[in-house]
Structure formats: C-alpha cells, structure tokens
TrEMBL record:
<dbReference type="InterPro" id="IPR043146">
    <property type="entry name" value="Penicillin_amidase_N_B-knob"/>
</dbReference>
<keyword id="KW-0865">Zymogen</keyword>
<dbReference type="InterPro" id="IPR002692">
    <property type="entry name" value="S45"/>
</dbReference>
<keyword id="KW-0378">Hydrolase</keyword>
<dbReference type="InterPro" id="IPR043147">
    <property type="entry name" value="Penicillin_amidase_A-knob"/>
</dbReference>
<dbReference type="GO" id="GO:0017000">
    <property type="term" value="P:antibiotic biosynthetic process"/>
</dbReference>
<dbReference type="InterPro" id="IPR014395">
    <property type="entry name" value="Pen/GL7ACA/AHL_acylase"/>
</dbReference>
<dbReference type="InterPro" id="IPR029055">
    <property type="entry name" value="Ntn_hydrolases_N"/>
</dbReference>
<dbReference type="Pfam" id="PF01804">
    <property type="entry name" value="Penicil_amidase"/>
</dbReference>
<protein>
    <recommendedName>
        <fullName>Penicillin acylase family protein</fullName>
    </recommendedName>
</protein>
<dbReference type="InterPro" id="IPR023343">
    <property type="entry name" value="Penicillin_amidase_dom1"/>
</dbReference>
<dbReference type="GO" id="GO:0016811">
    <property type="term" value="F:hydrolase activity, acting on carbon-nitrogen (but not peptide) bonds, in linear amides"/>
</dbReference>
<comment type="similarity">
    <text>Belongs to the peptidase S45 family.</text>
</comment>
C-alpha cells in the first residue's frame, strides 16, 4: 500500500473560525510541537485543549474510546471480537453516563467545552489521521461521556481483581496451605512510604483461613482458568534554592502513541501545565500551576472485588440474595464486526456489578465491583480545584472527591511545603474480599463505606526533609484500615532514598541524575553467591570474571548485566516451576496483574533468602551451593546460543530494548516500518529507578518503562524539565512522532517553559481560533 503519511497532518498555523467560543483562543507550539493554549475564559481554554489534542492525537483518542466501548472490531474485524466482548461486560459506557449525571455544573461544562474543541477540529479539518484510511473509517463526534470513558479504560486493568482470580486458581490446584505459604506479602524491614524512612515491622501475611472460608464459592473456577512508578519530593531545606523540588516518572508499557500528552492551558483563573490523557481535560496525574506542583505513583490499593453470584438454573436471570431470589438486569450488547456478521452477547448485572465471567451452564457468575464503576464516580470534580490550588492545603482538599485510581499523590508549593496523600476511595469490607472471589449471596462481604478522607495516609514536611514513593508499602501494620495485600519490593525506593540522602543542597540536575540510577540491589545480593561458582568451561570462566569486576549497575553497555539477568531468569525457571507445579506455565507466561505480580513478590522473597542462605523456597534436595551453578550454566548456554561465544559483546542493550508497536501494525505488516517508532537500547531493569522491566516469556524486551520523566522546580517554574519516550504527535508522518526519543533514551530532558515570556520566546508556530 503506497500512502503519503504526511498528507494527513493537521494545519497548526492558519487562523480558523470555529463555533462554540466566547473569546479568541491562541495555540503556540514549541520546537517539539508541544502546545501552549491561551484563552480569556476557562471553558475556552478547555475548548482549545480539546482542539489541540485532537490535532495531535485524534486517532489515539478514538482508539481508547473504541477499546472502552468494545467497538474495536468495527475497525479491525474478528481480531478485536474477544477484547470487545470483555469490555462490553465491564459496562464502561453505562458507568460513564451515570458519572456524568452526578457531576457538578463546573465539571460538566469543562467536559463539554473540551469535547466541543475536539469536534471543532473534526468539523474544520481537511484531513484526518492516516489510520482512518487504513481502517476505511472516519472519526465520530466526541462527547463528554467519552472523556470519562477513555480515562476509565486506561485504569480498569490497573486494579487487583486479576490477583484474586489467580489466587483462586492456586487454591483450587495446590490447596489452601500450600497457597498460603506461597503468598508472603511485603517483607519485614523494607521501607514504607509513611512515615518516611520507617520500615515495615509487621508479620508476613497469612491467608490460609480466608482461603478455607471461600473454597466452596471458588471451586467452579477449576473449569476454565483464564506497571509502577517513582516519585520523590525534597523540602526547601534540602535544596539549593530553598524551595521544594518534585521529580519522578510513571512506569507503563510503551503505547504507540504514548499514553501521556504534554500541554499547557492558560486562562484568567487557570495557568496549568503538565501531562494529560488524550481525550481528558486537565492534568489528573502530573503538572503544576503558579503555586503548586503534583505527581502520582500507583498505590496498588485494593478497590476491586469479585463476587460469586448463584443464578437459578430454571430462570437464569434470577440470583440468590440472603435466602431469596431477585432479578438481575439483562443488557443485550451487539458487536459490529468489520467484514462479517455482528455478534451479540447478554450481560447480566447484579447489585454487585456486571457479570464478566460465567460457568458453562451460566448458573454461577463473577460480578465485578470496582469503585470507578460501582455507582456515580465524581472524581473529575477534583480537576479544576487541582489546577487552581494555591497551596498544598488547597491541593489536598481538591482530592476529597477523587475515586480512582488510588495513588501515592505527592505535591509541593512555592511556600516551601511538601506533602504525601494516599488519594482515592478504598472500600471497607471483610478481609475475605482481599484474598479471593467471595460469596455474593450471604451478605457477609458487602462494602460498608470507604476509608474516610481525613483518615487517608498523609505526611507533611517530614523531619527528614523528603518523601519517596516507588509503589512500595504505604503504611505500617498499625494503620487502622486495609489498603492492599501486595506492593512492589523496596529496591527502587531504597536506591532513591540512598541517592537523596547523599545530596547536599539539591538542584534540578541532581534530581535528573536520580532518573538514571541503575544500581540493582538484587544483583549485588546474587553476586556474592555467584563468586563461589566453579566455572565449567572457558565461556563460563570468562563470564564469571566479568561478573566479579561488576558493580551491579545495569548500564546498556554492560555484558555483566546481561549475564546476571540470564542467570536470574534461569534460576526463576528452576525455582518457580517447582513451586507452582501444574500452574508453572500459567505463572510464568501469564500477562496482566495477577500471576506476574505474585511471581515478582516471590522473586523478591528469593533475593532475601539468597542473602540469608535460606533454602525454604528451593526445590527439595537443592541448596544455594548446588542450584546457583546450574542456573548460571543454563544462562551462559542460552546466551551463547543467541549472542555467540564472545562474552565481551553481550552488552545489555543488545537484548534489553524498547519495542514500540502501533496497534494497526499487526493488521498492516507491510506498513509497520512507518507505523512503529524506532527501538532503542536501554539500561536498568525492573528493580532499578531507571525502569526497564520485561516479561519472562520474551526476555529481555522491555514491557515496562518510564513513559515520562519530569522535575518541577518551585523556585523557578521555567527551570523545570520533562521528557516523553516518543513525541507530542500521534501522527506517524509527523516530525514530532518520535522526536523526543533520542533525548529520552539518554535519560535527558527538555525545557518545560511556563511563563508567558519563556513560552513566547520558544514558540515556533502560532494559531488562532476565532469566533464565528
């Protein structure tokens, strides 16, 4: 197919008259195509944000909308049907409609103005993204409901429900006692977030009683078994300027285009810059105004439950509830499929939510209870107060209505204050709910409310002078409410803390250097054992010499990083295949956040055991002295096979790299070289602040990484920095499709201009949106 990809690029310079404005809107763009939107009135500014976002990311927005509504098959045919069926079962559109009706007037007007801006672009543009040509489609009008839906679809799979399904499989296959022994939870002695520098002192989690309580309700599941971030804030007492610095990076898969969009919105009462989600107004996760800067990391909180419903075999629309039978709501969903007949499904909805999995005879179903879709979610009412906050007190109060996702919310202000808040709604309910799908019919597992806003975990201006979050455990065992069972190990948090403690009067440059921190704590632990290995052959001998001289830093040019990673991969193969038995393939191959999160936690336990020479997780008859040489030999043999015999060429970046893939590449492989941005070699791994995690099934191609990096300087906002891994544009033919990639790959940043004079000075284009 011979297509001119540049022909679909939008006009970003001509003045355009559009309906729906009360005043003129100006869109300035810098050399990277990043838009700065100016308007007199708030809603005109949001109109401009919608217009500019549609110019750059209309296809991206439409892709997310079709994912949310289960309409991807309309573009790609049968390849999208199964995904569409699952998304229809989650009932995101119905949920978004409920949310919209519950929002206050100010928030609805913001959503409507943004949507009007998107539609103004659609109506005025002479060309649309090249992807519409590839799917023989066209964009549909954007609505305020769509803004809510695309945000939901970006976060629905970031919850914990998959972990509960995975634990149900483990209990069914391995039994309650064995499963309990495999679920050890957060480790004693590892850093928590609140209070800063404190360590977890609680016992390992024990789930055996909860497993026994619910064995009957999950037995039927035997029939068909089916990302992280860093942030750190420094108080003015720790910085050169005397004002706070806020830095971090969200870790996700590298979508194409990237999930975050850099932009700046200014009106009479709003002057906010940050990273938005295309299709959503404001800056929910990362940004700053003239007084306050904010950022998030994923808290890993448990806000998704699975209820096991029993349906009447003689009338499958009725389900049991406290000894009686009540009617479910049945919704028929018709899925249009390009090139073939439509398919339809029926979704039953109970008081606990939509049924997303069912037994073969339909008498048992799993209902999905999720704070974002269970009743009205008015979290978007936080967006305007967030953008207009004048202090950390205002920024805290702005989050009172926030629902999902639950985040480690860190924010600073120009007056010198810093604060941590665990924002979002976490249900209060039985601890059985935390572990497994629970019986829906007895009423014993209902939500009784949410953790009160004034009891959410907080820390303000801690004595140590800084706050660090890296998806590690939030609070100690004395916190009165349950938040979650599983957290990321402390490794990234520990390295950031160690780096911050080593700073004097910190600068923006110091904060940026922490982004490139690549020392692996697990690598340093395993090096002590690997030094004892007696090599078998010259290649192993050379590899061992490389390791002995290594400092544990996962640089992209390091052969040692590759050798260590191959050893650890093969060690996990030997240990986890034994532990999981018949579920080993599922544990090591599965995607999502169920089995992989559990395996990650066990991998952390294994590091601790290696350090202590504890052999409790090793296969029977194995010791650390016996298993390490075997895993080392396995790894060297594998590397020799894929990289050759010259150990000095086994650089980490040869195998550890990005792999950005456009969602249409699989349907148009002949165009993949134009659709897919370049791959780049990277350092780091899943245990280092410079993130670069990978799946066991495709080592060592990166699946999780920094999808943005930032440093906000409260002493001089123009001194702030940021970067994304691709570019501001979602058009494959645009010069801004991947023009930040080289800078990002070097763990460097670009200027984040904020003041009017700085923006004017760096602008390379100007466009006016005029009143009709």
């Amino acid at each position: 197919m011979d297509l001119d990809f540049s022909s679909s690029l939008p006009d970003t310079e001509s003045s355009i008259s559009v309906p729906g404005l009360d005043s003129e809107v100006t869109i300035l763009r810098d050399r990277y195509g990043i838009p700065h939107i100016r308007a007199k009135h708030n809603n005109d500014a949001f109109f401009g944000q919608g217009f500019a976002t549609a110019q750059d990311r209309l296809w991206h927005m439409d892709f997310d909308r079709r994912q949310a509504y289960g309409r991807w098959s309309e573009f790609v045919g049968s390849g999208g049907v199964e995904s569409d069926k699952m998304m229809r079962r989650f009932q995101i559109k119905s949920s978004a409609e409920t949310d919209y009706e519950a929002l206050n007037v100010e928030t609805r007007e913001m959503l409507e103005a943004y949507s009007s801006g998107v539609n103004a672009f659609i109506q005025s543009s002479k060309s649309f993204p090249i992807e519409y040509t590839l799917v023989s489609g066209a964009p549909e009008p954007w609505t305020a409901i769509d803004c809510i839906a695309v945000y939901k679809v970006r976060h629905i799979m970031m919850g914990v429900f998959e972990g509960k399904l995975w634990r149900a499989q483990l209990v069914n296959e391995l039994g309650a006692e064995v499963t309990s022994n495999l679920l050890k939870g957060y480790q004693e002695g590892h850093f928590i977030i609140v209070p800063p520098l404190h360590k977890y002192s609680g016992p390992a989690v024990a789930g055996v009683d909860h497993f026994r309580n619910n064995l009957e309700s999950i037995e039927w599941l035997k029939e068909s078994p089916d990302s992280g971030s860093n942030s750190w804030a420094l108080h003015g007492s720790k910085t050169y300027s005397g004002k706070p610095l806020l830095s971090g990076d969200p870790h996700r898969g590298l979508d194409t285009p990237n999930c975050y969009y850099q932009n700046h919105v200014t009106s009479e009462s709003i002057d906010a810059i940050g990273l938005s989600f295309p299709g959503v107004p404001g800056f929910p996760h990362f940004g700053h105004n003239q007084n306050v800067a904010w950022c998030v990391t994923h808290a890993g909180a448990d806000y998704q439950d699975i209820f096991v419903e029993r349906f009447d075999s003689s009338k499958l629309t009725k389900y049991q509830w406290k000894g009686s039978q009540i009617d479910s709501e049945v919704r028929k969903e018709v899925i249009k499929v390009a090139g073939q007949d439509s398919e339809s499904i029926e979704v039953r909805v109970t008081k606990h939510g939509p049924i997303f999995m069912e037994s073969e005879d339909l008498t048992i179903g799993l209902a999905f209870s999720y704070t974002s879709t269970f009743g009205p979610n008015i979290g978007f009412q936080s967006l305007i107060p967030q953008m207009t906050a004048g202090s950390i007190a205002d920024a805290d109060e702005a989050m009172r209505d926030w629902v999902d996702p639950c985040n480690n919310y860190v924010f600073v202000d120009v007056y010198g204050d810093i604060r941590y808040l665990n924002r979002g709604k976490v249900p209060i309910r039985s601890m059985d709910n935390a572990w497994l799908p629970v019986p829906a019919w007895d009423g014993d597992h209902e939500w009784s409310g949410y953790i009160p806003f004034d009891q959410l975990a907080r820390s303000t201006n801690p004595e140590n002078g800084f706050i660090v979050t890296a998806n590690n455990r939030i609070v100690n065992e004395d916190y009165p409410h349950y938040i979650a069972l599983e957290y990321a190990p402390e490794y990234r948090a520990r390295r950031i803390i160690e780096r911050v403690l080593g700073l004097g009067k910190a600068t923006v440059e110091d904060m940026m250097s922490i982004h490139s921190e690549r020392t692996s704590i697990p690598a340093l632990v395993y090096m002590d054992i690997l030094k004892e290995v007696v090599p078998s052959g010259p290649i192993e001998e050379t590899a061992k010499k490389v390791l002995i001289d290594w400092n544990g830093v996962m640089d992209s040019n390091s052969p040692a990083g590759t050798i260590y990673s191959a050893f650890r991969l093969k060690l996990h193969d030997r240990v986890f295949r034994n532990l999981f038995g018949s579920l080993a393939d599922e544990a090591l191959v599965a995607g999502g956040r169920g089995a992989p999160r559990h395996v990650s936690q066990l991998a952390s336990n294994l590091v601790t055991d290696a350090n202590m020479r504890d052999e409790s997780l090793l296969p029977d008859g194995e010791t650390w002295k016996s298993i390490v040489p075997k895993a080392f030999g396995d790894g060297i043999l594998w590397l020799t096979d894929i990289l050759g015999e010259d150990v000095t060429t086994w650089e980490w970046g040869r195998v550890h790299h990005t792999n950005p893939v456009h969602p249409l590449s699989q349907y148009h492989p002949d165009l993949s070289r134009k659709l897919d941005p370049p791959s780049v070699a990277m350092g780091g791994d899943g245990d280092t602040p410079q993130a670069g995690s990978f799946a066991h099934t495709n080592p060592f191609v990166m699946t999780g990484m920094s999808v943005a990096r930032y440093v906000f300087d409260a002493s001089n906002w123009d001194n702030s920095r940021w970067i994304v891994p691709l570019g501001s544009s979602g058009h494959p033919g645009s010069p801004h499709y991947a023009d930040q990639l080289d800078v990002w790959s070097k763990v460097e940043t670009i200027a984040m201009c904020y003041t009017e004079s700085a923006v004017d000075e760096t602008a390379v284009s100007k466009q006016l949106l005029l009143l009709v």
